[in-house]
Amino acid sequence: MDTSQITGLILAGGRGTRMGTVDKGLQLFRDAPMALHVLMRLSPQVGDVMINANQNIAPYEGFGVPVWQDEMQGFAGPLAGLQTGMAHCETDYLVTAPCDSPFLPKDLVARLAAGLEEKNADLAVAVTGEGESRQPHPVFCLAKASLLPHLTLYLQEGGRKFDAWYASLTVAEVHFDDEDAFRNINTLDDLRKYEATAP
């Protein structure tokens, strides 16, 4: 898959309630906003990058990429961010990563793309762990931008859960060994802990 045909979308549209209703993507981690760490890791893997944010738009615009607010009102979750990204996507594929995941794999997009092509799937989702500890990470997904009407209908019918949305689609689950790469920083305690310990 030609990476120039993949747009990256950083999901920064949440309320950050578990972090005390602060904007998670703008919290400093190792002297830079978390979303900027994500941007620096994702950018080399894709043709273009954009950010989905619903507050503090100007600081996000300062990163030098387009910023789009949810098409839906009311902080409807990551699927609303994905819908917004698809609506503004000018490439065939869209890959997502949350703004609070500064360790995301540097081969995330290549491996998701290989999985999607191998299975001729509609979207590819990262998975870690085995057996009972197996964990899908649907906010790290590569999807065909042409899924926009399907996703919009699901949202209009009140659906909000990622896995329930893609249950009716052909999905490639791509296994990653490094669980730490998908670690997201949800609380200020996490932020302080990983400042000191994470690679």
Automatic annotation (TrEMBL):
GO terms for molecular function: molybdenum cofactor guanylyltransferase activity. Signal peptide: none annotated. It catalyses: Mo-molybdopterin + GTP + H(+) = Mo-molybdopterin guanine dinucleotide + diphosphate. Its cofactor is Mg(2+). It is an enzyme of class 2 (transferase). InterPro entries: MobA-like_NTP_Trfase, Molybde_CF_guanTrfase, Nucleotide-diphossugar_trans. Its EC number is 2.7.7.77. Residues 8-163 form the MobA-like NTP transferase domain. It holds the Pfam family NTP_transf_3. It is found in: Cytoplasm. Mg(2+) binds at D100. GTP binds at L11, A12, G13, K24, N52, D70, D100. Its main location: cytoplasm. Keywords: Cytoplasm, GTP-binding, Magnesium, Metal-binding, Molybdenum cofactor biosynthesis, Nucleotide-binding, Nucleotidyltransferase, Transferase. Belongs to the MobA family. Monomer. The N-terminal domain determines nucleotide recognition and specific binding, while the C-terminal domain determines the specific binding to the target protein. Transfers a GMP moiety from GTP to Mo-molybdopterin (Mo-MPT) cofactor (Moco or molybdenum cofactor) to form Mo-molybdopterin guanine dinucleotide (Mo-MGD) cofactor. This is Molybdenum cofactor guanylyltransferase.
